[in-house]
Amino acid sequence: MTGLLHTVLDFVDAGGGTMPPLLLCCLAMWYCILRAWLDLLPVSADALRAEMDRTFACLCGRSKAEDADLAHVLAETVRARTRRRLSLAAVFAGAAPLLGLLGTVTGMIETFDGVARFGMMSPKVISSGISQAMISTQTGLVVAVPGLIAVYFLRRRLHRRLLAPAGVGPCPGGGDAP
């Protein structure tokens, strides 16, 4: 385990100064994605809406149309949190390649600075700057592409659940709605 940690830390160090923000971006993005996935996992939107319909029909005694409207508003409030998480994850996924590009520019500047100071006779200076540029670009893309795919699929899942119809069933506990 310690060897793996040293390998990762060496990789981060080789990528330059943009790697720590890239890793934080990656962690934040996957946190948002996993939380949104957990929001969508336990119950579907139609089951949630149907449960709210039944609960309001039993507790409030209003008409079924008013109960359905209220349940719809509450279900939408719950889903708004999931939408915000997916939007935030998309922002992090969009920022990752830009941070990688910033690392590319930084690595190329270091390469040209090394060439200006030591000339073309120092391949180590040239190769370290180019390596930094490529590592940060690669990391930005490796963070962004799977994140954007996950956000897309979770948004589609959320959208499908929003379109699912819901019916009003009997009250929890056995009684019927008034």
UniProtKB/TrEMBL annotation:
Database matches in InterPro entries: ExbB/TolQ_transport, MotA_ExbB_proton_chnl
The MotA/TolQ/ExbB proton channel domain, residue ranges: 64-161
Topology within the bilayer: Multi-pass membrane protein
Domain of life the protein comes from: Bacteria
Keyword annotations of the record: Cell membrane, Membrane, Protein transport, Transmembrane, Transmembrane helix, Transport
One Pfam match: MotA_ExbB
Protein family according to the UniProt entry: Belongs to the exbB/tolQ family.
Record protein name field: MotA/TolQ/ExbB proton channel family protein
Organism in which the protein naturally occurs: Pseudodesulfovibrio methanolicus
